[in-house]
Design goal:
The chain starts with 19 loop residues before the first helix and ends in a 5-residue tail after the last strand. By secondary structure, the chain is of the alpha/beta class. Helix 6 crosses helix 13 and helix 12 runs antiparallel to helix 13. It has 17 helices and seven strands. Strand 2, helix 11 and strand 3 form a beta-alpha-beta unit. 46% of the residues lie in helices and 8% in strands.
Amino acid sequence: MSAGTGDIPRVFSTGDKGTFGWYTAEVRWPIIVQNAIDDTQAAIDESTNELKKQQGAVIKGQLAQLKQDIEQNRKPPMLPEDVKEYEPFNVTLRENDSQTWLNGDWLFLEVLMYRIINVYFKAQSEWTQFDIFERLKDSTFKSSKSGVLDLALYYHGLAEKFNGQPEAIPPLFQEFMEISLWGNATDLSLLANASLDDISAIQNAAHRLKQKSNILIDDTNKTFEYLKSFKGDARVDFVLDNSGFELYTDLLFSLFLLDFKLASKVVMHGKNIPYMVSDVMIKDFENIIKQLEDPEFFPTDDRTHLDYVASKIKGYVADNKLSIEAHPFWTGPLDYWHLDPSETKYGGAECHKVLSQAQLNIFKGDLNYRKLTGDRVWPRTTSWERSIGPLSHNGLVTLSLRTAKADVIVGLPEGKDEELSKYWVEQGNEYGSWWAASGKWAVICFNDGTTK
């Protein structure tokens, strides 16, 4: 994947044949919309409200039309002109009015698709607050019961055993960083299951070493040295990704930071609309606490460890040491190069000001990585600092925890992409470059916000 040297490369397009973005538009988007149609019908069937049923039928028809428009490669529609939040979408659509669903800017069109779906629901009085993805979020989290219970047991045990022992903090920091990192991987076996008998098990277990080999860039130590310099008086912000199990792992990481006095406050940033199927909204944050406490949601004979984790989370929320907010910028079409004091029109400067109050900003997951890098066709050896543009020097201290699930990836040493591409083909896959979209490799990328 080439790009001009010295110039900022173009963004990935859904028309780039043989890329994961091309496959996403052609195959995954119609499935996502069809699932939304099916879940709308399920909600209609469960309702006794006739108006809701009628309005639901309208939404179903609109979703069916959207699916057809994608499949038939039509132009995406403009959004309602009377809503200020939609302005950056419409400006972009006017500036690039030749793009179609299957031949246009992948990141923009993906964000637009979810916004269009939300517009359909918001236009109907009985459906304005309906989360079309909630059914899937809840069922997926419920199916994660084993991992949830194991991690609750794990956290409770180590908090009682190792809190107050300074020598335990560095390896545990690495442990919870990686638990949060892999939290959005579908393969829960990637998560740590280290013994509580000895802290050294965390460092030396064979599965840990195997997992670490799939972390291609690892700035964990750099991040820890930076964070510990604040001697516990640090605010850490999370720009969240998925709800359910990943949010649970993010909360455990937050508990560790607060309990072991690496941070004094954690602020989480979620989404203001149902988004990317499983992204965290404020109500998902509130729901997860209830779900952890609910014996019917997670039935188990021994609730000791789950109750411990839930009470810890609730305690920090009550003390205002753990909170969540949602700014419209996070669901807008702009990449994070616009997360800058100069971006005064669409919320970029406002969010930059909020994040600048934190000593460390952790961007979770694949979508945030794509927005950090602009989802551009960077050569895969491009430095992290170059790929994040203004964020490398505009004062925000950033950490990207990303399980790779898209085409863009940077910071690799010479020859690594070729090595992994060859390996991926040898495993029977058609496109070698898709190793970077498989979710099997990850990166931990730190930047102190002062790199010129």
